Amino acid sequence: MNDQNNNVLEFKDVWKIYQMGDEKINALAGVNLNIRDGSFTSIMGPSGSGKSTLLHVGGILDMPTRGNLLLNGKDTSTLSGKEQATFRRNEIGFVFQRFNLMPQLSALENVLLPMIKPDLEKAKELLDKMGLEGKHNKRPSQLSGGEQQRVSIARALINNPSLILADEPTGELDTKNAEVIMGILQDLNKKEGVTIIIVTHNPLAAEFTDEIIEMRDGNII
Ligand SMILES: Nc1ncnc2c1ncn2[C@@H]1O[C@H](COP(=O)(O)OP(=O)(O)OP(=O)(O)O)[C@@H](O)[C@H]1O
Ligand SMILES: [Mg+2]
């Protein structure tokens, strides 16, 4: 993922405004932010400060109300819905704050879901790497929160994304497992050059990253 200035993502005066009855909520209030190719960034800040919204817009799961998001130098508002979907599937690995696993599918089937040509061995290897040996055939409801989180991380990694956006990837994990997951992300960043942004409340997780961004009231401080 390269362009002349080496930015994978560029937020240019990005606003995300939710209308709730008569009230307007500025979830993002004019964010300007560049994410360099190969960088490893954490986003911190209080609840409601716009962290998840920023990640959703960065992963083109949501479009800005105003302003522009450039992906590899290309304005995402010029991409068709199909181009956006292809990009999300092939280039972006997204870890959702609430996991978003399919309840009727096993762990293994959830990990295979984003693959056009299912590679069973790769999915199993990835689940094992996440410490889920022996749990491949369990459904999300049969797994702990931390185990579901690790399934959702495996699903995000399955297509070898060049950009990983992870919303509190260690939120449900104990210190030991959090360090394992952050170590895996750090290796992907340092050895394979994957660009990574995580949202976290955990200073230990943030320590693995190279840059910490603080958010308040829909903007970066
Ligand atoms: N779909 C929505 N409709 C209306 N308001 C929303 C919506 N999504 C988010 N908001 C509001 O936008 C603001 C930012 O929400 P966001 O989820 O980005 O916060 P956050 O920093 O991720 O918080 P947390 O740490 O609790 O996950 C909040 O005030 C929230 O209530
Ligand atoms: Mg959030």
Overall description:
The structure is a single chain. It is built from 7 helices and 10 strands. The chain has helices spanning 51-58, 81-91, 107-112, 120-129, 145-157, 175-192, 203-206; strands at residues 7-20, 23-36, 40-44, 66-71, 74-75, 92-95, 163-167, 195-199, 211-216, 219-220. It is globular and about 50 Å long. With 221 residues, the protein is α/β, with parallel strands linked by helices. The mean pLDDT is 95. A hairpin with a 2-residue loop joins strand 1 and strand 2. The strands form 2 sheets. A 6-stranded mixed beta sheet has the order 6-7-8-3-9-10, sandwiched between helices. 32% of the residues lie in helices and 29% in strands. The chain has one domain (7-220): Rossmann fold (3-Layer(aba) Sandwich). The longest helix is centred in the C-terminal third of the chain and has 18 residues, at 175-192. It binds adenosine-5'-triphosphate (ATP) and magnesium ion (MG). Residues 51-52, 97, 167 line the site of magnesium ion (MG).
